[in-house]
Design goal:
Blueprint lengths: L2 H25 L3 H4 L21 H25 L5 H30 L5 E5 L6 E6 L6 H15 L4 E6 L1
Parallel strand pairs: 2-3
Antiparallel strand pairs: 1-2
Helix pairs in contact: 1-3, 3-4, 4-5
Length: 169
């Protein structure tokens, strides 16, 4: 697989994720359907509780996906521009690989922390990989054991030791 094909696959993957998040946002939560509370005859947007501002984690993921998709598109444009020097295109290929690794690490960290019992988690690795921001959905402040668990997971997955942890409801 060449670089162009990898770029296309990553762009399509980002679009699929974006479409899924958008569909979930537009159609409302699926809690009622999962619990067999079908609410036949009612619009899907009325399932669950309605908040004017929406869910923080859904909106943050959507924003993150938009930013990453924009970066991927910019990189793809550079890679496909034959008028640019080989050095510029090589640098873009390196950036593409770095972005892909960053997204993979963010996803791995989020899944690992959800697997450890956290309700929802958002992981944001800084572009220069100097730090990681972890946002955890929790009604109360995290205790020291939970913070250590998060820290260990992040360092074990990304090898980045500068971890900022915050909670949202």
């Amino acid at each position: 697989m060449n670089k162009k094909q990898a770029g296309i696959i990553l762009a399509l993957l980002a679009l699929i994720v974006l479409a899924g998040v958008s569909a979930a946002k537009l159609n409302g939560p699926v809690d009622g359907i999962v619990k067999n509370e079908w609410n036949i005859g009612k619009p899907a947007a009325n399932l669950g509780d309605d908040k004017a501002d929406g869910d923080y984690f859904t909106n943050a993921r959507l924003d993150k996906d938009k930013r990453d998709s924009k970066k991927e598109q910019d990189i793809s444009n550079i890679l496909n521009n034959q008028n640019l020097s080989k050095e510029k295109r090589d640098e873009a290929a390196t950036n593409q690989k770095s972005l892909s690794e960053k997204r993979s690490q963010e996803s791995s960290i989020e899944l690992a922390l959800k697997g450890k019992g956290f309700e929802d988690v958002l992981c944001l690795i800084q572009d220069d990989k100097s730090g990681v921001n972890i946002i955890v959905k929790n009604k109360e402040q995290l205790d020291e054991k939970q913070r250590k668990q998060i820290q260990d997971t992040v360092v074990g997955t990304s090898k980045i030791k500068n971890v900022e942890i915050e909670t949202k409801q």
